[in-house]
Amino acid sequence: MKRVSGEEDSVILAEIRKLRNEHTEAANDNKEALERLDNVFKNGGKNSLRVVNAEERLGDTEDRKARLERSVAFLLHQEAKLAAKCDDLESRSRRNNVRIHGIPEDSEKNDTIGFISGFIRSSLQIPAEVDIRIERAHRSLLAKPKENTAPPRAIIVRFLDYRVKEQVIQQAWKQKTTYEGRTIYFNQDYTNEVQKKRKQVRDVIKKLKDKNVKAQSPYPAQLKVFLASGTKIFTTLTEAAPMLRDMGIHVQEEERDELQRLRTQSSWTMVTRQKDKRSQPHPQGQTHMPSLNKLTVMITMYKLEREVKILSWFAYDNRFKPNLGDQNFKEWETKGITAMCTVTKNGSMMSFVDLKEKYGLENSDFFRYLQLRDYFIKEIQTKTSNGVIDILIRTYNRTRLKATSALHKNKRDSRATSTVYINKKWVKELSIEITTEEWLNMCQSLQTTRTQGLGESLGGKTSLDSS
């Protein structure tokens, strides 16, 4: 065998040392990359924990917000009822009162009742047999005007007999009444709230008059409009706002009234208003279900159009045709059978025997059960379960609270656990290409390095015999 010369040995050893150095540098680079990757995993774990905590807090906040919104809607609804009742009681207490405007200050001297009685007798055409009995009479409780040019305060008169008061005010409206050359006006003694509303209505009536539209303001502050198509009466200006807007008249709604209207009509009274409509009723007691908008987003995101039918009330579901001619399905509500999820268990239809035992169904309901089971199998049942639907079912059945938090957690847990994102970041930082096989091997190497302490061997030097 031909012997290799010493010069050739030196060349080979130099190449080996060069390869060893390259291997060492590559191992060091690999170790540094793995350390960075390890830091990425650690930071990812911390960030994941922070996201979980944030999602839980967000879910709790949304649940609390929903409860507070319902509470505010209820309180506004109650406040509106109490305010209306108080205003009605105050108005009733003023039914015998009349406000007289235009009488100069100090005309009544120290006898307001006697002055008003004489003024009514002398100014109005009241029959002599009518007994004008006045209980009290005084100026309004405003500050007395210091200047003579200021309008005098109104005189509030309370009659003992309501019929006499009506006779006096009706006669005053029919004829022109004056005192010392001044025109005197008789008005009802409205509450402050009614006066404010009537003033708003009068402003609208003036605008309608400018458009040659006749209008009146019946008590307390209604709007009666005489149109070519007929007469329309609106209880409030808010109710008349759409029609007025079409006529070019803008109605300014106070912020408080707008808030009260929106809260009460959208969150509290809507269930009552829709009670008699043919629609799926509001499930009583399901106070922890997510909002309709949130459910719609989730159904679209997870493509659950088929699965979500399990939450529908089959007695009101137009897709379930047997309910159209059989009212017994609606009577099942009294037994506790409402949505499809109340007759299913673990993704399958419960047996008729179980339903009889749980809900007290009769043998005559067996054919209806078969109809319902056929609809469930064809339209709703799926081969695999879905975490989102399971959470909604448990929430609907009140076996779980804080559905929003659970849905956030399910969304997080259902995300793919692939490290593609980290792979892309690493490729970008190192400016190299990594195949799928190489990446899997690298992840396995990282796990082995972290568990068995092989990381140090990657940077170890190889002992070579230079002799």
TrEMBL record:
Residues 16-71 form a coiled coil. Residues 270-290 are annotated as: Disordered. Residues 281-290 have a biased composition (Polar residues). This is LINE-1 type transposase domain-containing protein 1. Keywords: Coiled coil. It comes from the Eukaryota.
